[in-house]
Amino acid sequence: MPLARFASQLADVGVAFSVGPFVVSLTSSIPRVAEGIYQLYGEYPLAAEGADRFVDYYLSLGYGRGVRRWYHPQVHFVYDGLQPFKPLPLSQALPLFEWGLNWCVASQMHSYLLIHAAVVERNGVAIILPAPPGSGKSTLCAGLVSRGWRLFSDELAIISMADGSVVPCPRPIGLKNESIQIMRDYEPQAVISRESRDTRKGTVALMKAPSESIRRADETARVGGIIFPRYQSGAEALMTSRSKAQTGLYLADNSFNYSVTGARGFQLLADLVDGAECLEFTYSRLDDAVRIFDALEWLQ
Amino acid sequence: MMAQPLLCEVLIDPERAKGLSLQQWDLLIRQARHADLLARLAYLLEGQSGVPTAAQRHLDSAWTFAQRQAQSVRYEVASIQKALSDLGIPVVLLKGAAYIMAGLPAAPGRLLSDIDILVPKPCLERVENGLLLYGWRTTHHDEYDQTYYRQWMHEIPPMKHGVRGTVIDVHHAILPPTARLKPDSSKMLVAAVALAAEPGVCVFSPVDMVLHSATHLFHEGELEHGLRDLVDLDALLRHFGDQSGFWEQLVERAVALDLVRPLYYALRYTAQMVATPIPPFVVKALDKLGRPSALISSLMDCLFARALRPSHVSCDSQWTALARWMLYIRSHYLRMPFHLLFPHLIRKAVKKRQGSGSLTEPIVVKE
User: Which residue among B142, B227, B276, B335 has the highest number of C-beta atoms inside a 10 angstrom radius?
Assistant: First the structure.
């Protein structure tokens, strides 16, 4: 579908597409949204039509009303008629779509255990990368998936309640501040969106998920490792072990719905940590990181 | 006549869900979510075959959330019991918390945003102090709000727990003192039934529970949860309706408490929207006792038929917003004489504009 037709459908009836396990319908008449979504989500499978269509999240991004259409224009995030957030400056429309969709999943998809973490996969084994903001989680994730690792998510580890496997939900990776240039240099082929400045996380740009990750979004994987990345300027790459108890507590604290899922969530988390290598990884150069991740012996 | 929303059809007859297309399931889930009835729907459809995986995932999620909330309600009620047990007064749980603690059929899948309790008015200060001591804090720090609540309302400003963030609404009556109807809440307190599991904690007797639910629904202005409240009433009426003498007592009690009109509306609209069976002699008796004039009656039918539909865009007509607004004004008019009401509504409208917050609060997991 050419951009012009995509944009007019997006403005008119909306476009529904599959993002990992979810079907999202997006409506927007904002040209920069059409352009950005086309660039980042153009390869995602379109949802079924007519009577076979089931949409999980009806979203729209709209202009502000009255003077806010023109004066410091704003973008409103609407979830099936409700506005869960205050509007943001129009330039932040794409990040708002990502944050809004995260909110929809995190606040209402308790049929999975949801943990704030990046997830990548290789040889059928997934690695969860939990870490506080600023630890270089997204940059490491972007680096790995630019070198053959499969992207599951850079924000949201979705764990199946049925069997403890991770479910892929490959979406654009949020790059912040210096990371944007780092990734442009590291992977010149990468598709990176326009930058949104002055967001609450600084300057943000979105990097499109690798095509293969999008194509294989229905292939789940078992969790082999939980690795806490820490970017430290000038540091030699170093992988050290981390206690399982600490790892479990950290994941529980950084889960969106651990407390909602009760005993099942606890059991799932305990099994997850039990069956995974728990490690800490300090690094300063992406190449070192990729080399060390590629060589992890429990992946071979 | 407007078509019955899909959600109401399935609430009336869960078998109706069989054979729905995926697109219809999509609509059903959205309507139920907006009506705050998704977890209830999950309960009603439990074990039914043919629910598509895509829909089941949302039902499971809502059910999980409701289970967690019910657990949290039990914990909160135990905490309230601890905070107030020394006072030696009856503490009556209202609405959602009451259904859950009494294990009524209205409980499964019932979501709530706060815990409502009723205490005798003379004990209000001691109750407030007791709750303060156990970590609850007042939420409205605006002096106008504090004064308004304490002078005109049937409840004190909501109290929020400092650590867990849970909210208690402490009522001393079921309607404000200025309301046109004058039910004697102390009669309801006296008739309350103790919960075996929590000494000192009570729930209303069956007839009072129905009357309170009806009064709440038809006197509160916020009808976005109207259908959810009708579903409560439906479950209560079906459950208690089997007990001998219930219906006679219900009508008698409504007369004694000056709550005939809300009961009239409650039975009329539960029957209309969710097909609650009401014995003909009760309909007849209430027609005689509580039916408004023909003009008011058709106006109310017109307004409630719109306002009580699920608050989802698929159920809205061009008149829905107007109907909800008129009922909002009506609810205030029923609560207060106009000379008190106007200054208050104007003040609220101005504050709302200044606040310019989001339209709805996001669903927050209570911890």
Answer: B227
Residue at which a domain ends, from A61, A88, A108:
A108
Alpha carbon distance B367, A255 (integer Å):
13
Check whether A130 has a pLDDT greater than 90.
yes
Residues of B whose CB is below 8 A from A58: 30
A185 and A273 in one domain?
A: yes
Interface membership of A218 toward B (CB under 8 Å): no
Three-point CA angle A152, A155, A157, nearest 5° = 55
- Tokens 């909602």, residue? A260
Tens digit of each residue's pLDDT (9 = 90 or more) over B100-152: 999 999 999 999 989 999 999 999 999 999 999 999 998 877 788 788 777 77
Number of structural domains chain A divides into: 2
Tell me which DSSP letter residue A237 carries. P
A144 is written with which tokens? 């790995």
Q: Using the beta-carbon criterion (under 8 Å), do A260 and B64 form an inter-chain contact?
A: yes
CA distance to partner chain B, nearest, from residue A48 (Å): 10
pLDDT tier, B318 (very low <50, low <70, confident <90, very high otherwise): confident
CB within 8 Å: B363 and A108: yes
Q: Could you tell me the residue range of the domain that residue A36 belongs to? A: 3-108
- Any CB–CB contact under 8 A between B359 and chain A? yes
Q: Which residue has the tokens 């939990």?
A: A130
**Whether complex ipTM tops 0.85:** yes
One domain for residues A64 and A157: no
